[in-house]
From TrEMBL:
Keywords: Apoplast, Disulfide bond, Manganese, Membrane, Metal-binding, Secreted, Signal, Transmembrane, Transmembrane helix. GO terms for molecular function: manganese ion binding. CDD domains: cupin_OxOx (cd02241). This is Germin-like protein. It comes from Panicum miliaceum (Proso millet). One of its GO terms (cellular component) is apoplast. Disulfide bonds join C61-C81. The chain crosses the membrane at residues 31-51. Oligomer (believed to be a pentamer but probably hexamer). Its main location: secreted. Residues 93-241 form the Cupin type-1 domain. It comes from the Eukaryota. The keyword 4Fe-4S does not apply.
Amino acid sequence: MAERVKIEEKVGGSGLRPEPRGTGRPIKARLHPYVAAACAVVLVLAAPTVGTDPDMLQDVCVAEPLFIFVKLPALINGFPCKANVTADDFFFAGLRNPGNTNNPAGSTVTAANVESFPGVNTLGVSIASIDFAPGGQNTPHTHPRATEIIFVLEGTLEVGFITTANKLFSKTVTKGDVFVFPRAHVHFQQNPGYGPATIISAFNSQLQGTQAIAMTLFGATPPVSTDILAKAFKIGNAKVDAIKGRFFTPK
């Protein structure tokens, strides 16, 4: 008991617990690095997830039309806010009618993202409809800024995505089915040819971005070196140039 009183007198009401034998500093001081590490973890968890749209900073920010905002300074997420907002800014009728699938891919995407639907600016969402002719394909592509989830309105589709471990997850989906493609993963949809098909695609980004793999590699401007592509695909330079010719569009 006498020893305990001596220890308490030595501490002197500082609020510090007596340090164990063999240490040269108070327990509170020795815990400091752990407290700092815990705070760092909390800050990381509280921060927005990398690669997704930022949180809203105000109720609405309808994007100015393209021909206007390219001449104005960026205010929120690269799109200036429109001054006079109406209900029509939050309305989009572009998905009412089927798209024209008379093209080489046999499919067409009608997008309702910030470029065509300014009301979604800063809201972190967008939507699209994709129409497929029999045998049509939405070629392998990625969305670098969004996860995509689809709902089949009509028809049958073969869909799938590939992981970074090169594992394919594929499924045949039909009317009423839902399938999801993780953000930035290569994925595709193809109509096996039983009839027309239509899906609704939703994204957790106002502008998901789309990179069609073949077009990205063989139709880039300026073009990717033929030698690089020949080595990557293990084919001859002449074959690469022939493929490039199918994607290059003279201006």
